[in-house]
Amino acid sequence: MLETFEKELLKTIADITDLPGAGAYNIRRNGESAGRHSTEHIVIEPKKDKPGIDIRVMPFTKQEAVHIPVIVTESGLNDVVYNDFYIGEGAEVRIVAGCGIHNNGDCDSRHDGIHRFHIGKNAKVTYVEKHYGEGEGTGARILNPVTEVFMDEGAECEMEMVQIRGVDSTVRDTKANLAENARLLITERLMTHGAQTARSDVVINLNGDGSSAQIISRSVAKDTSEQIFYPRAVGNSRCRAHVQCDSIIMDDAKIRSIPEIAANHCDAQIVHEAAIGRINNDQLTKLCTLGMTPEDAEQVIIEGFLS
Amino acid sequence: MLELKNLSFTVDGGDRSAEIIRDVSLTVADGEFLVITGPNGGGKSTLARLIMGIEKPTAGQILLNGKDVTDLSVTERARLGVGYAFQQPPRFKGMTVRRLLSLAHGSPLPEDVCCEYLTNVGLCSREYLNREVDASLSGGEVKRIEIATLMARELEVAIFDEPEAGIDLWSFSVLVKTFKNMSKRKHNSVILISHQERIMQLADRIAVIADGVVADLGKKEDVFPRLLSDLNSDCDFREGCGDA
Asked: Under CATH, which number does the domain B31-56+81-233 receive?
């Protein structure tokens, strides 16, 4: 049985409050499975050699979802998990991951999710991953996700990766390899506050002709927090890619944004843009003229920016 | 009723200061539609920003329905019913048109109501509801959405700063109609900064602000002919036109 605060964590990261009544799922709590269910088309099995699961989506599965959220509520837990996704040819699936840490103790709680996606020919994947930390303890909440995506010909993948708040330290490592006509969209949204640190490295290898990728990174850094973004798009074929980093900086925060583009093929078209700046004064004033306090206006602007 | 009493605004520019508004006194009655016009750089927008509280006057008083609001913040004035449509409205990444209109209204707005506001400013509403008020919109589109944010409110004093700027002719006709209806409804006092004759024709009174002072003020019927005759006699551009 899940405690009330655990259900709230699940709601925040995966938009579910309990074990889903239907569909495939695996809920991991404090390093152990708290519930697992396979369906006719989506089979989830534990790995035999290390912690983690294999998720197999049958070819041509349509409109199905799989939830694999993780919650860590035990202070001092260091949880590493290896999840491999095998998405069959032509399948269409929505994957909801995410990790919530509730740390009331003085020891660090950490979860490293190592995810590998093998996306078959013409398959379509929507992936949502939300990270969130809470709790009164002095122990840090640490999340270091590793995501590796292998996309076959014509595969499509949209990844939405969000750090809501409360994560003291994160190092995100994302890699993708695209075959012919594969299409990838990564939307990263991240907020840091207090003395938190965040680093995100993304490498997209566009290996097949006609492949395309877009990386959109939006972040807000408050207080004394620090962020580093290092997205790279590498064109090895006739491909298109667009990298966009956009950050709002506040208080005494620091942000480094280093979008890198590389072309190893004369028909590669790759564009990057990056911007860092504080909240525009006219935006604040406009919302104040609607009757909002400057503090509420700031909140509304940030929420919109990260929505 | 809005009263400006001996309002002045000076910008301190280090060695020399510039007096943008000089001893302006003006009353806008309940239900009145006042058009403010005058040359560029004459102080029209500054006056609007002083009324909204975005700038603080260096001297004088602003009274709203008899209450002194001179020292009140923008937020406080907004809550008392002062609204201001910016000449150059800011854009918001991630904020949809519907959300912005709802924020203006103070509570979530039903789709049909949002659509009505957008139609009134010449925008095909359903296309716009879920679009973001960001750089993907043209200047004219953002401007019209800005006007709609004031339509979504019930105000004591609504100030529109050159609402026609950047708006195409077809949409302009719709706008004039909208402002005309607004003037008939007489819910609010309306202050509209404009250079357009068709908008001036909607006014109860016209105020001409030039060099920081009220250069002329009166009923539309009286001020408008004087404006035209000034234009004919003072236009520097006509020198050497060969029409003399």
From this structure: 3.40.50.300
